[in-house]
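Students often ask why inverse folding is considered easier than folding. One informal answer: many sequences map to the same fold, so there is more than one right answer. In these notes we will look at a single instance of the problem. The structure comes first.
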C-alpha cells in the first residue's frame, strides 16, 4: 500500500466562507470548493500534549506497545499537525518513555462540505463539514504485516451570521479545531483497541 496523503490544500477558507456566504450561486459554489479543499489548512490547530486518552486502564506492557507506534508521513500543513498530535498521543501512553518503533500507522484525511441552510435573501446561513480518516496499522516486519485497518468519520457545523464576518470566522475556526481534535481522538482509540485485540492471543 502506498503512503497515505492528505487531500487538503494549504489555502485557508475561513474568511472566504463568511464573505462568500453573502453572495449569489457562483459565490456559493466557490465557497463549497474552497471549503472542501482547504478549510482546515490554516485553522491554527495545535498538537495536544495532555495525557493520552484511553490509556489509563491499560497495562504497562500495552502502553509501551502503543508508544512503539510511529506515524507514516502525511503531506501538507494539516497533515503535519495531525501527525504531531497523534504521535504525542502514542508517546504519552507510556508516560513519555522512549520505545523502539514496532508499528507503522498510515493515516489520510478527506474533507467534505454541505450547505445546511439559507436566509431569505439566498445567502448561506449554516455549513456542515465532514472529515473521513482511513487508517492502516502495520507491523514493521519484512515485508510489513497489516494488523488492522479502519475508518473514522466526524461531522461538525457552524452558523454564518448575517453580515457578522468576524463572528463567522471565529465560529469556523472553532468548528475546525473540534473536527481535527475528534479525528485524532477517534483514530487513537480505534488503533489502541485493535492493537490490544491483536496482542491478546500472544499474551494469553
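Output (designed amino acids):
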Amino acid at each position: 500500500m502506498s503512503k497515505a496523503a492528505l487531500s487538503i490544500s494549504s489555502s485557508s477558507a475561513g474568511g472566504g466562507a463568511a464573505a462568500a456566504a453573502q453572495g449569489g450561486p457562483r459565490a456559493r459554489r466557490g465557497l463549497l470548493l474552497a471549503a472542501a479543499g482547504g478549510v482546515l489548512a490554516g485553522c491554527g490547530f495545535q498538537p495536544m500534549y495532555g495525557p493520552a486518552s484511553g490509556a489509563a486502564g491499560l497495562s504497562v506492557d500495552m502502553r509501551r506497545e502503543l508508544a512503539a507506534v510511529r506515524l507514516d508521513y502525511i503531506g501538507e500543513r494539516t497533515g503535519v499537525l495531525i501527525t504531531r498530535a497523534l504521535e504525542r498521543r502514542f508517546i504519552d501512553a507510556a508516560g513519555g518513555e522512549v520505545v523502539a518503533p514496532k508499528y507503522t500507522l498510515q493515516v489520510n484525511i478527506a474533507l467534505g462540505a454541505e450547505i445546511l441552510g439559507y436566509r431569505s435573501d439566498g445567502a448561506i446561513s449554516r455549513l456542515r463539514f465532514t472529515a473521513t480518516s482511513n487508517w492502516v496499522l502495520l507491523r514493521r516486519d519484512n515485508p510489513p504485516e497489516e494488523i488492522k485497518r479502519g475508518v473514522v468519520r466526524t461531522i461538525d457545523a457552524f452558523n454564518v451570521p448575517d453580515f457578522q464576518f468576524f463572528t463567522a470566522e471565529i465560529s469556523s475556526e472553532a468548528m475546525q479545531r473540534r473536527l481535527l481534535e475528534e479525528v485524532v481522538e477517534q483514530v487513537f482509540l480505534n488503533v489502541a483497541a485493535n492493537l490490544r485485540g491483536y496482542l491478546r492471543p500472544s499474551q494469553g
